[in-house]
Amino acid sequence: MTVEKKKTVKRVVGKAIVYFFLVLIAVILLFPYGFMLNRGLMSNERVLDAHMYYWTDGLHFINYVRAFSDGGYGMPLVNSLIVCLIVCVSTPLATLLASYAFARLEWIGKNTVFAVMMVTALLPSIVTQVPLYVLYNDMGLTNTLFPLFLPGLFFAGAMNVFLARQFLLGVPKELEESAKLDGANAFVRCFVICAPLCAPILIYLAVNAFIAAWGDYLTPSMYNNSTDAPFTLAYALYDMTSKETNSVHPEWIFAAATIMSVVPTVLFAVFQKYLIEGVQTAGLKG
């Protein structure tokens, strides 16, 4: 065997070993998800059987319907969609306004305010939960959906503003000069000229805000302490697991959990191009 052939064999064997371990890791990571899908499609009798089955006895998609109609996950799903839709609109909007002020407008103390805002990114979010709870409780907003989306209406987060500001710094100012000469104010220039050019970063912010609100368990668990509170799906999956109706229908729990995981997966798959482009472009500009 020649030296070239030996190198080729070593290279092929090395790649085969690498791919083998990669496939093995993928199977290990995907097994819980496959198990959840199978259990969500099983019949009630098969799920409750003392023998552990790993494969479904049929495609019982009716489990998904019953999980949200009879299992009590229907209203939490609606609540989650309401919160997520509000957040995914308000977060890019608030971010665009704040980032435009920092990137385009000149006002006294701009750099100081920006520096103070960036310092807040170093604070763990958990340290603000107690004062926020006291504030919402005094305002009578606990056991409602307002604490879940109200912060996003006024402040979108320091890192979001930073990313959008970096993106705006890469947009040529000359594009706004003609509009400014025609009498366009800052709001017109922001929404008519800059907003379409900032579509990648705005979509990135909207999708991230939606996914974060969709999977948020901590916030509803802190502000909703009543059985009549409007729970979101993330919290309902935990809260309703021990209830009698769902304990005798585990397939409903797996069906609801599947929907819970499918939504962010689909969003990431659909907007993957914008998510990557938004971060890369924001990191390069400025």
UniProtKB/TrEMBL annotation:
GO terms (BP aspect): transmembrane transport
Membrane topology (UniProt): Multi-pass membrane protein
Localization (cell): Cell membrane
SUPFAM superfamilies assigned to the protein according to its UniProt record, in alphabetical order: MetI-like
Swiss-Prot/TrEMBL keywords: Cell membrane, Membrane, Transmembrane, Transmembrane helix, Transport
InterPro entries (alphabetical): MetI-like, MetI-like_sf
Cited PROSITE patterns: ABC_TM1
Transmembrane intervals: 12-35, 77-102, 114-136, 148-169, 190-214, 252-271
Gene Ontology CC annotation, any one: plasma membrane
Domain of life according to the entry: Bacteria
Residue ranges constituting the ABC transmembrane type-1 domain according to the UniProt record: 77-272
Principal subcellular localization: membrane
Family stated for the protein in its record: Belongs to the binding-protein-dependent transport system permease family.
PANTHER family assigned: ABC TRANSPORTER PERMEASE PROTEIN MG189-RELATED-RELATED, SN-GLYCEROL-3-PHOSPHATE TRANSPORT SYSTEM PERMEASE PROTEIN UGPE
Record-given protein name: Carbohydrate ABC transporter permease
